Amino acid sequence: MSSEPPPSASAPPAAAAAVDDMSTDLAATTLSKKQAKKDARKAEKAEKAAQRQQQQQQAVDADDPFASHYGDVPVEEIQSKAVSNRVWSQVGDLDAAAAGRTVLIRGFAQAIRPVSKKMAFVVLRQSMSTVQCVLVASANAGVSTQMVKFATALSKESIVDVEGVVSLPKEPLKSTTQQVEIQVRKIYCINRAVPTLPINLEDAARSEAEFEKAEQGGEKLVRVGQDTRLNYRSIDLRTPANQAIFRIQCQVENKFREYLLSKDFVGIHSPKLIGGSSEGGAAVFKLMYNGQPACLAQSPQLYKQMAICGGYERVFEVGPVFRAENSNTHRHLCEFVGLDAEMEIKEHYFEVCDIIDGLFVSIFKHLTENCKKELETINRQYPFEPLKYLDKTLKLTYEEGIQMLKEAGTEIEPMGDLNTEAEKKLGRLVREKFGTDFFMYRYPLAVRPFYTMPCYDNTAYSNSFDVFIRGEEIISGAQRVHTPELLTKRATECGIDVNTISSYIESFSYGAPPHGGFGVGLERVVMLFCALNNIRKTSLFPRDPQRLTP
Amino acid sequence: MSSEPPPSASAPPAAAAAVDDMSTDLAATTLSKKQAKKDARKAEKAEKAAQRQQQQQQAVDADDPFASHYGDVPVEEIQSKAVSNRVWSQVGDLDAAAAGRTVLIRGFAQAIRPVSKKMAFVVLRQSMSTVQCVLVASANAGVSTQMVKFATALSKESIVDVEGVVSLPKEPLKSTTQQVEIQVRKIYCINRAVPTLPINLEDAARSEAEFEKAEQGGEKLVRVGQDTRLNYRSIDLRTPANQAIFRIQCQVENKFREYLLSKDFVGIHSPKLIGGSSEGGAAVFKLMYNGQPACLAQSPQLYKQMAICGGYERVFEVGPVFRAENSNTHRHLCEFVGLDAEMEIKEHYFEVCDIIDGLFVSIFKHLTENCKKELETINRQYPFEPLKYLDKTLKLTYEEGIQMLKEAGTEIEPMGDLNTEAEKKLGRLVREKFGTDFFMYRYPLAVRPFYTMPCYDNTAYSNSFDVFIRGEEIISGAQRVHTPELLTKRATECGIDVNTISSYIESFSYGAPPHGGFGVGLERVVMLFCALNNIRKTSLFPRDPQRLTP
């Protein structure tokens, strides 16, 4: 398949660049953000100088008969000037079957390797796929030495269009995902990256094993710290592992929705701006709403219950939840994506547990079976053991859990809550004894929110549960109080001003079915499924007590 | 299929109620919220008195050999006491094929019609489905006159369990969706509604035609105003039209996701808490974030672009967006659900328009073909003409639009924006001339946000577009600026402090592909598809400048 040259190239003959070789491998971790900004500014200046130099060069390169086969495309040419209907290929689709075909691709210039004045390699990347493009100066191919020079002078991560012929390499390629090469006929730069990036993508993509191996060999590789990654998230997101993580996240949400829709749940959207103080407690973001005090919802809890009162029978919501907690841990965020569900129950909140069992088995199966490429990609940088799960999850009472901890030497206040440490220990104990994750149910009423239904036989306990995955609490759920009298009583006992939630409580006076539900954080599901060590790795632009940008 | 009696009934013989008949048809619209609250309190007192009376009655009803076949189930019995594995039927599944079967259902008591001391009807509702339950006192059936009395004394909208035998009525039933009846054998009240509801569901479900017909007959029916509906949203949501509207909304979102996923988009979640001032302008909710000034995102715009810079190629997001605008119109909300997408483009933003064409045709087709029941239900209360749309939407330039308006006598400032009135008029003109909705593109740069790409041939115009449905602007989109230099220039020209968006602008220095995208409000799509007259009808719990509750 032959494709026309881009209009940009044919209209005004684009200039060949003459930027001198510049190393783009600069250690980034050691740079403070300020320093990096300074560098970026310096780099911009350098780039502008290069552009000027390039313009001067134009006259010289006019001698090149192939000058129209390469160059920087001016921004005006990419301002929706025309629709050429040229056919573009996807890097990930390029395989042996494409050999001999002329293809046109656009991608990030991941690596640029000059071999000689007459030869160079440029690796182009699209998402998780990379392909090696080969430039060899040859009059037959319409490739000049100036064109090779232009390619070798490209800055890493620039956006580059390549037109060329797919060929099969003599030896297997190690550094690209695609096992074909492109013999470049034309190459244009669409948008230059600054020559000095604050993060080097190779550094950001290394596994712990690579670091160890290098250290054993006496080599010191640059580590990109978590904060540097997040400061320059738009670069960091390009690592193969990050490309995979957020595709996995999207699949978790898809399967969450699909499964619940198949069980007659309706997806809803509840307001995030609410009056009063959400569910009480201090961890609330407050603001003024057209002169009225308001806050950001800590969960869709009260609204999904009102939707049940509104006759929706089974509802779910995927949306942001806000917690103004000053928790600087590996598993807390100030804003995360809540996966919430609420459903009528006929007689027991185990009906909710059954839905959870089916739901998470369906999510985990889907990931394991249909996201192999993504999981392997994550595994390469962050190796992990596949998650073990049962079709029907083990259930333990809170009392049994406390007892197991006690027998293992950890004394827990029987009516108190488990701290993270005790939780993790219990997770380990259960895994050792039963080889699986588990539901823990019948928590003390005092450690659950006011809307939790007390146990029928002992009101010191509640009809509530948590689910543990890899020994960490991930899902919380319960039967809810469905009568206004008990709800008012419980709210008052929990110190909540019932006036601020009056329309919520009223909803239960107008006919309210017994119901229960659960909530889980999307980021935590991905973090625990992939055994990542920090929830910031599974939030696209995380918010923690210190971080509000980018 | 026979089902066991509920544990509640067999364990402690439940008491038969002896509440006197009480009319529950009370006009609600004329009540202020305060009055309604007072009434609700009064009603609660009345109910408690009724409960006491009922307890006293227990002794009397002990004579009834069928006393265990009916009664109020105490809340303790519904606190997850046991799992009985009883089989429950769905009202919507009850058809002639079920005749002769014993079924167990739970629903809202929508209507209670006493016929005599020996006979009564109770209509049970689940979501959009209703079924008539018949009580006839008979020793053979285990139904006593006390049981009939208990049923007639139920308050409307109470949650009721019925066990009975499905039978075929002699004549077609007009007031229920299901064409079978249930011959009641057992009836239990699970959770009573207050006797006097602030909204009567029948009133809330009437169409304009019914009001007119009644008025012509000299009858005055109660109208439930929009504010009353929203004040008591958990009742209002039970009307058939509202049950349908939010199911349609869920389907729009599903199809939006499905279509974009099929086109290799990745679903993302961007932060709603952001530093700086979002996209500028006054319509921003501000708050303090752990001591730092922050605001709520007016759209995921900057983040979906950073995801494109992060190598995601095509992304979409479904999530809340916040606008602190003081707009009290039929089509503005302070919080709504944004459907946003952003994608790399190769050369022209019409590539985005093509995606929109395919996307909305797929959504509209899906609704028309697979949501017939919901659309008919909405149509019964709010009649509307089906939406007309083409597979390839008509495109007009802004200049052409202005010209059409001019020819029809409406003079518009050629470089200004259209107001709603002009928009609607243009929509009418285009429909008259072309019989369709349309894209309008090439808007003046000055009326579009700073990140909009100017036109290559005239920078007073921009590579932007709006889509009109039923003559109202609904989708907005554009090519975006993808170089840091132009972006800085445009932000500065638009009066935005570039320091507050520095990490956004920086993202374009590290390799940024040309891209474009669009955004649309979920509530507006549903409103315009169903030709509803107010966006509050398509928001579950709407937020406008006046409303922050429930």
From TrEMBL, chains A, B:
The keyword Iron does not apply. Its main location: cytoplasm. Residues 1-66 are annotated as: Disordered. Gene3D superfamilies: Bira Bifunctional Protein, Domain 2, Nucleic acid-binding proteins. The keyword Cytoplasm applies. InterPro entries: Aa-tRNA-synt_II, aa-tRNA-synth_II, aa-tRNA-synth_II/BPL/LPL, Asp-tRNA_synthase_2, Asp/Asn-tRNA-synth_IIb, NA-bd_OB-fold. It catalyses: tRNA(Asp) + L-aspartate + ATP = L-aspartyl-tRNA(Asp) + AMP + diphosphate. Pfam families: tRNA-synt_2. GO terms for molecular function: aspartate-tRNA ligase activity; ATP binding; RNA binding. Keywords: Aminoacyl-tRNA synthetase, ATP-binding, Cytoplasm, Ligase, Nucleotide-binding, Protein biosynthesis. Signal peptide: none annotated. It is an enzyme of class 6 (ligase). Residues 37-50 have a biased composition (Basic and acidic residues). Residues 246-550 form the Aminoacyl-transfer RNA synthetases class-II family profile domain. One of its GO terms (cellular component) is cytosol. Its EC number is 6.1.1.12. GO terms for biological process: aspartyl-tRNA aminoacylation. Residues 51-60 have a biased composition (Low complexity). Residues 1-10 have a biased composition (Pro residues). It is found in: Cytoplasm. Belongs to the class-II aminoacyl-tRNA synthetase family. Type 2 subfamily. NCBIfam families: aspS_nondisc, PRK05159.1. This is aspartate--tRNA ligase. It comes from Eleusine coracana subsp. coracana. The gene is gb29260.
